[in-house]
Fold each of these.
Amino acid sequence: MITKPFSPRDIFAQPVVNSSRVFLSPQRYIQGPGVIKNCGLYLSLINAKHVGVLASKRGFSAEAENVLQSLNEAGIEYSKAEFRGECSKEEVERHTNDLMSAKPDCILAVGGGKLVDAGKCIAYRLNCQVGIIPTLASNDAPCSSISVLYTVDGVKDVVEYFPQNPAFVIVDTEVIVNASERYLVAGIGDAMATWYEARVCEDNPVGSNLVGCRPTLAASAISEKCAQTLFEYGVSAAENVRNNQNSDSVERVVEANTLLSGIGFESGGLALAHPLANSYTEITRLNKKYLHGEMVAMGTLAQLAMENSEDLEKVTKFFIDIGLPVNLEQLSMHPLEQFEIDKVIDAAFKNPLIQRMKFEVTRDLILQSIKKADDLGTSFVKQYGDEAYKRLHD
């Protein structure tokens, strides 16, 4: 079992800081209706003989059932591991110990974002490959070689890095369109940050991606294409998923949420939006009520406000149209609740990723940016309404 944490900076970010360019991605990305039924065939590409399948109790009676059937058809043995809901150190260690004796060739993580992250942690500790089968398009975790761990109470704890990205990511859009619209919309919130954070890292001469190196042109182009896709197809894709219908818009947005954003944030870099989003988890009730991408949406608006970006109004209006929060009230906060806001700001200020911004970021600047975004969001809600938000949250 591997116990030593992996640091990609020790490999890539060597003496000449920020001079090298590094691009990371999953080895294979497979998307389409019904592809989950072929996972046994895909596993033959890595010559897997025994697989650890991580899924929730519900998942084993739903999507993971198709996975197990495909493994049986391919003659691949498996061990089942039931995920209990939180990607915590305790949960990861429990499954690592339970699966160790089986000596799996690969861990298959079948589920949502936290389960996916836990699967990557388990595979690293067992020194085997990992395959990701997301059942939601709610975040960009599946394609990366990174996991975020939380405390048992849902507060962000630590980030873990891994030497390899997933061996494959299998996204079955039949599964995605039968999930709640809110999950797809949250994924759009997570993915929209990708371009705005990546362009900060690209434009800042000392900006770097998540392995401490300069972003490649490919990563920046993918990040920009991600935002373009969401603006063009996001509203129609959400409408289709609301009616459990697949479409070209859905396929495009699912790819943007999962592949483009996954590559974009890891290889393009993060700035303010994600550190601020992760800081909202310091408020316990937000963890229970809001999805990661919904908090990222608020972080993106604050970052655009901080930059005095011309895109602030465009993104705010788009978020209103698809039902993402655009002000503190929609995130169950209030601009006058200074204690809670200070708690969020303090957590964000400690995150070194905010140093990617092209200017010095102070606590007061973060506060003013949150308030500026909140004021605009409140104004736009009065002007355009909040029908989409209420549909997803009432």
Amino acid sequence: MFSLSHSSRQLARRWAALALLAVCSGSAVLADRLVVLDAGHASILDALGVADQVVLAPLDPTLEGRLLQAERFHRTVSAESLIALRPDWLIISNPAREADLQQHAQRLNIPTVVIERTLPAIERIQRLAELTATESQAQPLIDSILLDYAQAEARVAEREPLRVLHVSSGGAGSSGSVTGAGAGTSAHGLIERAGGINVGAEAGLERYQSLSAEGVIQMAPEVVVVSNLELPALGGRDGVFERVPGLAYTPAALNQRLVVLDHAAIKFDADSSGEATLALARALYPTAVTEAGQ
């Protein structure tokens, strides 16, 4: 009886999956071995119950203790890694930055799918669920996020928006300088959903950019948000207002308004998006509207 070799079966399966995606983009697609370039995507896949399908993921502190079977990469993935792992899908998260890798994958007949990391969390969850045929697992997660969003929105309704600055110790690559989050960051969406004004974006920052004392003073943040993993590098709770240029001369320093959130909640708008939004809304506005009116 005629039978395909293992490699032939793999190739046939990949082309069948590609054809299915092209003909019916809304349908589920078989995805057994995944290379994931974004930690947020990896976290979503773990939440969907398909962590065992991830064969390569970023070396990121937010994934510590998770995706234990997956190999890790630091900064970039080589073509050699793709050859060795032979994934069924390469999930692209930043098309501009990962263009070369995508071309390598295409030359190796490895299917790629683009799910940009800047997409809203719910859309990313839906698309990853379609890729892995886990729509039933995704719906409860989406419902939970929407409920948290609604609770956060109700909490901040009719409040005067607070001016919020997210500062980072590692947002500008290896420059070592303190940076602020502008537009095009997960922190930007988080701050806005929690009822705040992202003063970094208001000042014209794009993604993460270095901060100057003059710029921070002009931003006049009322609240500063930092990651729990980056807080030590920023001077800790007692030193952050002195460590960040100009921050000591802002309303946030005057009133000691510092919010420390989980690193993943700030950096990756992923499966914890709802929890992060509600947590920040509660931190910004500790007293609910009904309580404030009493």
Amino acid sequence: MLAAPDPVEAAEEVHRRLEALDPPVRHRTLRLLITGLPVADGERALALARVLVRTGTSYLAVCTGLVLLTELGRPQDVPYVRTLGRLRTLVRPVVHTLDALDRPAGALLELRGHCGPVAFGALLAALDAGDRTAVRERLVALPEELAPEVARRVAEASGLVGLLAEVPGLSASEGAALVARAGRLLFLMTTLRDYRPEILSYPDAPRAYEAFARGAGLLPATLDHHALLLSAVQELSTGPAVLHDWGPGRREAALSELTAVLRRPEWCAPPVGEGDDGPVVRRRVAWARRTRAQVLGAPRSPDTRLRIAVHERDPGDPAAIEARVLVDGRPLVPDYFGRGPAHSPEELLFSGALRATDEPREIRLAEAYCTQGCCGALDVTVRRDADQVVWSGWRCPVPPGGKRQLPELRFDAAAYDAEVARAEGDESWMWPARRAARLIADGLRVRPELLTRWGVRLDWAGTDFHDPDVTLISLLYDAEGGHVRQLLWHLPEDGAPPEDRAAAALRRLGEEDPRTYGR
């Protein structure tokens, strides 16, 4: 049908076949089935798509036309597609097609149809009027907290990169406000509240980061601005944003501009909370100091094929601590998996999981938020082969509608061992409660009898997600009926050094059954 000479007859046949499907398929399934189909005659396939979109009489027929336009459409098709977006049931298929043909139009429709008119009413009105000054002002005035996808859609709909190009012609305060808003939107796009970070769905990310880096010098050295710059350096060094097609030297140049600002005299003073001494501000200040020391530290050798970087996100928008694995400079988990963050340093480093031995061992690098049983995990077998370490035997979900075979990775064994040992010994990212957790876990590995005497075993040791100043120890034990029970032991911050807190915890485990702690 894609190559039929008469597109009207072909469209009628499409209608008949789709109506005969039992059960009917969904738009997403249509996309998977149609995307990538070989097209012998692009012009005839395009003609069929246009007939289906402009005259189709069923949901699935119109969706089929939209999917074809995603691959074959041209600018003159955009008005017809945008008109279909007025129908609520077609918003999602239309947005998907507009993302390929006119991304700002798709973003605008998404904001209008899914995010509600209240929060974005003023911005939408400015966009409809084509008033760029008003768009900039309304963009800066948006709430600080936006969902990751909404942040991306706002950047796309408003033409963020184009607005940033106008910064040199603005007053210092106006330019700084716009640059700060751009940094905030980029930061929100990097969060992993969604399985796949939205920054990977933002094609303009490299240009936006470059413009943010160029304008960073306009920002006063507040805690919030420290956080924006440090977060951008983190992401451009080890985060998913690295996976964009940057071209030679562009990402490195943006990093240089950002670090140059951080090294200015006015930025070298430790950031403070501007009068707010609440727990979140205290954590952010401590995080900024730790992160600054890390990102401005001695540069790594560019010849290191394997790099392991512990990533702690700005506590103002908390996330799990990741042990990011980079191979040839590319973050492996979002590149190969993309359904959740990398595992924690406790799981990958302090447990010795990444160490290579002559005996092959399967390790888990990441797991989907919804657990392995739902959306899978990323597993690899690690083994030593003479003077090399080999990662092979990958187990990872195949992308919908696609096939993928992950490559075997080989590392120089001496360099591999050195990097793993360095990462295992690096505690520069830790805060007191997290260090206490590590010391407790290390103590229990050395003295397992502290738990075995009570019929209890260590599950994990870390910190409370909602209160990172609380050390949290997860213990497991077998209950009646073959069930496994979990015990969460909370150790609040008491001002004592981590070594003393860990020693006290181990001492108590030697004296009292932990199953009685909550009684």
